[in-house]
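re: that chain from earlier
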Amino acid sequence: MTPCLTRRRALGAAILAMPAVLRHARADAAIRLRCSLDTAPSHGRNKSLADYLKKLDAASEGRIKTELFQSGQLFSDLDVSKALIQGQVEMACPGTWTMTGFIPDCDLFQLPALYGQPFTVTHKVVDGRAGAMVNGEIDKRLRGHVLGPWLDLGYQNWYAASHKLTAFEDLRGLKIRNSGGAGQAWRARFFGAIPNTTAWPNVPLALSQGTFDGLVSTDESVASAQLWEAGVKYVLADHQFIGEYIPIVANSFWSGLAPDLQKLMTDLWAANIPTYRAAMQADQDAAREKLIAHGVTYTVPPADQVAAERKKMLADQDKVAREIKVSADMVRLVSEDVGTAA
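^ sequence. v structure.
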């Protein structure tokens, strides 16, 4: 056999083998997962997601390569739902309050049945049938797969500057800023306050200038913004509702994963969510101590007073649900999951 013929046969064999080689190379290539958050690296949510993604990199042995984009580098939480729908990002963990435009049932925390409830009750709802219903709506409307249990932000309370807050009656007549939504506005009016919506970046200046008298927020948010410098001196810690973040993976990404990688991502989140929830609570506790150290005075209403206010609110629950567009099915599931705790 001539050298020329040998070379041609070798070349032909190599060409025939190329598709298999390319398929193998593609199979071995790392799958890119970009996660978008709009909070800063110091935020508890960021720390939790950074830990999860690091663990996912290691556990997948290089099959998944994660990237965490923070401080709104890719999308704000208000815009990330649309980005998930369009497949512009693989993962996000937005707050429920940012998704109500797409999924009104995400506003379930504003229902009177959940006013002032502890974490155990809220977890019974979000880890139960009500949460599963929201997860199904996310799959249908946002084309997103919910990885597992939701991540707690923490209790929302009343904070005020020049007006003492020692009882619910002290809220009467005050202009109170909230993050938006009919549910929070309704609650302010229930206590005789005047609702105000101001974008968070503008809160310190607006509060210091007296644009509003107080606000609804969390200890961690108030402490991280150093709002004692803007005048915050008093807190009425009624724990009116718990904010939640939902870990979502775009269906366009999820459906392309091998079953073992889907199981890995699910199991890894489930194994770590108790730790992440505990860390978020610890951050809130530390923030409260920081606020107290800066002269902020706390009043915690007795549990029976909170329960009495919740009972009065429940008389208007159907009206509130219609106003915030939460479905009748969601109201029923929340009421059933809360049960006698309402």
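The longest strand covers residues 234-245.
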